[in-house]
């Protein structure tokens, strides 16, 4: 089984419910086990500020799905939950991104691993650190080092998830 970390985000149509439904869908993916989920955090939008705050989390999965079929499943979950891409970094019912796929480093037209900008996003690093504080990124950078730049983040923890 491969260790995978997925970022979840929503700011439309009851975001907490959107993330919970996405977690159920992730847990039901073929050849996949949901291992752990961070708390849900409320964060300001990355892009245009004329949209609601986001709810973000990170999920840890074990899977035998290869990266591109996993990406296909994630996009299917997004579409099932009403994802419409209106503008770059705009509002959305659900956004699912593969952050890390074991220690794989790749860049294709459809997928970049590790996620191309994850190290600059507090709404990714803070919840990832919550569930994997000893993680080292594929390039060798310890997550604990990345977390230092976000120690004074302004996100609010708004929901805790149990995977029992």
UniProtKB/TrEMBL annotation:
Residues 88-99 form the 7,8-dihydro-6-hydroxymethylpterin-pyrophosphokinase domain. NCBIfam families: folK. The keyword S-adenosyl-L-methionine does not apply. Its EC number is 2.7.6.3. It comes from Bisgaard Taxon 45. Catalyzes the transfer of pyrophosphate from adenosine triphosphate (ATP) to 6-hydroxymethyl-7,8-dihydropterin, an enzymatic step in folate biosynthesis pathway. Pathway: Cofactor biosynthesis; tetrahydrofolate biosynthesis; 2-amino-4-hydroxy-6-hydroxymethyl-7,8-dihydropteridine diphosphate from 7,8-dihydroneopterin triphosphate: step 4/4. This is 2-amino-4-hydroxy-6-hydroxymethyldihydropteridine pyrophosphokinase. Transmembrane segments: none annotated. Keywords: ATP-binding, Folate biosynthesis, Kinase, Nucleotide-binding, Transferase. Pfam families: HPPK. Belongs to the HPPK family. It comes from the Bacteria. GO terms for molecular function: 2-amino-4-hydroxy-6-hydroxymethyldihydropteridine diphosphokinase activity.
């Amino acid at each position: 089984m491969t260790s995978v970390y997925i970022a979840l985000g929503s700011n439309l149509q009851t975001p907490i419910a959107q993330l919970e439904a996405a977690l159920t869908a992730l847990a039901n993916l073929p050849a996949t086990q949901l291992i752990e989920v961070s708390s849900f955090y409320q964060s300001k939008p990355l892009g245009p500020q004329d949209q609601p705050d986001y709810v973000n989390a990170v999920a840890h999965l074990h899977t035998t799905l290869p990266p591109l079929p996993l990406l296909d499943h994630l996009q299917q979950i997004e579409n099932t939950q009403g994802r419409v891409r209106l503008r770059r970094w705009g509002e959305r019912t659900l956004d699912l991104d593969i952050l890390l796929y074991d220690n794989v480093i790749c860049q294709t037209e459809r997928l970049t691993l590790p996620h191309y900008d994850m190290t600059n996003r507090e709404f990714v690093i803070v919840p990832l650190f919550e569930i994997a504080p000893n993680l080292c990124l594929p390039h060798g950078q310890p997550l604990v080092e990345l977390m230092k730049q976000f120690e004074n983040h302004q996100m609010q923890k708004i929901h805790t998830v149990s995977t029992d």
